[in-house]
Amino acid sequence: MKLTRWFCLAVAGILGFGFPARSEPVPVAKYSKPIYVACVGDSITAGTGLVGIAIDWSYPSQLSRMLGNKWEVHNFGIGGTTMLQKSDNPYRYKAPLQSKPDVVIIALGTNDLKPKNWNQAAYVSDYKAMISAFQALPNKPLIYLCLPTPVVPPGRFDIPSSGPDMLIPLIGLLASENHLDLIDFNAPMASHPEWLPDRVHPNRDGSFAMAKAVYAVLTGTDYTGEMLPPPSALAPKPAPAPTPTSTPTPASVPNPPAAPTAK
Fold this sequence. Notes:
The chain is built from eight helices and five strands. Helix 1 (3-15) packs parallel to helix 6 (163-177) and helix 3 (59-67) packs across helix 7 (204-219). 31% of the residues lie in helices and 11% in strands. The N and C termini lie far apart (108 Å). It has a five-stranded parallel beta sheet with strand order 2-1-3-4-5, with helices on both faces. With 263 residues, it is an alpha/beta fold. It has one domain (33-220): Rossmann fold. The radius of gyration is 26 Å and the shape is globular. Strand 4, helix 6 and strand 5 (181-184) form a beta-alpha-beta unit.
């Protein structure tokens, strides 16, 4: 863990918020149907490199399997997007708003750190606007803000490795000002660069660590089980089809013996 992160955490402590904030778990008994969770984010949420036709190791998918059938987790991650609404690829959050979620998990900021995008004041302002939009929904969803995953030095995709440490106190202050809980994606991965093979996007172990961080805050308990494979990996494989037996073609069938002729 770098000195800059320790400095950020010290400043955060002075400002009066912890890492991560822990409050009461989501009251599952209050809901008469599965709790709808909207995971808002960029490619780190979407699961770049982890989602295929028959397999999905993204953190929302792993979280869904961990939480079980009383929850309904939806992945609204869109690769390359930013919280900044004036950038090379702003995140448009109409779809998660229209889903009327019970729980919203916001993880945006990594792409904002690109020099061509970064504007601290606008980032904070646009983040507040997103929070306000979800708070204005009639069902008053529970909103959680996520501290960013690390970026392994020297960075990649024009994202500096020092960037996440700039975001940590900003997001922490936003959570404190809006009385929202934090989910820390940074600390569990800070000492595991091998979980970020391209230096930015987590592999399935990194996504598992992210899912466990969310699980702990939503349920109030730590997840102690193993990484659960997708249902398709659990399903029994179909038995191989029997090898077809060869059937003689008409040409290969011997002619029956000729009937004896009358004498």
